[in-house]
Amino acid sequence: MKFKNTLTFARKMDAQDSLRAFRREFHIPFAHGKRSIYFTGNSLGAQPKSVKKILLEELEDWAKLGVEGHFHARRPWLYYHRFAKKSLAKMVGAKRGEVIAMNQLTVNLHLLLASFYRPTSERFKIIAEAGAFSSDQYALETQLRWHNIDPASALIEIQPRNGENTLRTSDIIEVIRQYSSQVALVLFGGVQYYTGQFFRIESITTAAHNVGAIAGFDLAHAVGNVPLSLHKHNVDFAVWCSYKYLNSGPGSIAGAFVHEKHGNEITLPRLGGWWGHDESERFKMKKGFKPMPGINGWQVSNVPVFQAAAHLAALEIFDRAGMSAIRKKSILLTGYLEYLLHETDPQQEYFTVITPTEVSERGCQLSLLFHRYGKRIAAGLDKQSVLIDWREPNVMRIAPAPLYNSFEDVFRFGIIFANEIRSLVLKSKRS
Question: What is the pTM of this model?
Answer without folding.
Answer: 0.96
